[in-house]
Amino acid sequence: MNEQRYLPWEWLVVAAAGIMVVTMGARQSLGLFLAPIDQTTGLGIATISLAMAVAQFVWGAVQPIAGAIADRYGSGRVIVAGLLLLAAGQTLTPFVGTGFGLAVTIGILQAAGAGIASFSVLVGATMRQLPVYSRGMASGIINAGGSFGQFLFAPILQRIIAGFGWPIAMWFLAAVAVLTTPAARILRASPRIITGEGADLGLGAAVKSALGDRSYSLLHAGFFACGFHIAFLVTHMPGEISLCGLPAEVASWSLAIIGLANIIGSLLAGWGVGRYRSKYILAGMYISRAVLIGLYLLAPKTTATFYIFAAGLGLTWLATVPPTAGIVGKLFGPRYLSTLFGLTLLSHQTGAFFGAWLGGLAMTHLGNYNVMWYADAALAIAAAIVNLPIREPRVVREAVA
Predict the structure, then answer these.
(1) What is the rounded distance in angstroms from the CA atom of residue 17 to the CA atom of residue 184?
(2) What number is the average pLDDT over the span 171-195?
(3) Is the pLDDT of residue 109 over 50?
(4) In this structure, which CATH number among 1.10.10.10, 1.20.1250.20, 3.90.1300.10, 2.40.50.140 belongs to the domain 9-191+203-387?
C-alpha cells in the first residue's frame, strides 16, 4: 500500500503564499518601472516593453522545466534557486542601459527566477502533500498571496521610486527576495509523499497523455487569452492612466486595488473549486472581463473610474489559477501537477508576451491603446467560449475524517 502522509496545511500553505507575495508582488508591479527606466535610459517605451514582454514569456517557459525538476527531486532547492536568480536580476538591472541588457536582466534573470519560485512549483509542492478536500481552498490562499504582494508592493515601490529613484526600489526587491529563501525549507518534502491516486507511468508518459487530451488543449487556449489580458494591463495601465492626465499615484493605487480585490477573488475561486465545475467558473470570469472593458471604454476617464475598474478586474485577476489548476488536477492527478500546470502557464505567458509587446507597439505607432482594449475584450469572450466544452469530472464532496 502506498504511503500517504499529510503535513499540517497551515505550514505548507502559509509558506507557499509568503513566497508568492514576493515573486508575484515584484512581477505585477514591474509596470511602475517602465516610465522611470525610459526617463533614465532614453530607450523608448517600445524597447522597454519588448524586454518586459520577453519577461512574460520566460516566466511561463521556465514553469514546466522547474515543475519537472521539482516533480522528480523535490521543491525546496528549486524554490531557493528561483529566489536567488530573481534577486540577481533585480540587483543588476540598474547597471544596464541597453535594450539587450534589459532583456537579459528583466526578461531572463528576473523572469526566470520569479517563474521558478511561482505557481507551478508552489501549487504542485502543496497539492501533493494535502488531501483532496483541502486542495481547492489551499490553491486559493496561495494565489491570494500573489495578489497581496501586488497590493503591498505597488504603493511601497511607487513611494521609493518617487523619493529615492527606481534603482533603490529595484534593490529593495532584491533584498526581500533573498530574505524569503528560508520559507522554501517547509516545502522541501519528497515529491512522492502522495502516490495513491493512480499508477505512476512516468513523467514522459504523463506529458504525452496530457498533450493529446482535447480538454487540456482547450484549457491552454483560454489561458492564453488570460495571459494577454493580465500582461497588457500590468505593463501598460500606468501608461493609460498617464494618457488620461492623471498622476502616477493613481497607477500605483490602481495596481494595489487590483491586488486587494484579487485576494477576495482568489479565496472565492478556491472555495468554488470544491463545489462547482471549474470550467463554468472560468467562463464566468472571462465574460466579466469583456463586460468590464466595455464599461471602461464608455466611462469618463477619472480617478474614480480607474479605481472602480481596478476593483472589478481584481476579482478575477489571478483568480483563474485555482480553477485552472483544479481542472489539470482532476484530469491527470497531482503526481505531475507541477509539470502539467507549468505547461498551461507557458500558454498563459505566450499570450502575456503579445499583451505586453503589442501594447508597446500600439502606443508607439498609434499614440493610444484603443486597439488593445478591443482585442482584449474579444479574446476574453473567446476564452469563455472555449472553456465550456472541457471534459471535467463533476465535483464529489468529501467529508473530512
Answers:
(1) 11
(2) 77
(3) yes
(4) 1.20.1250.20
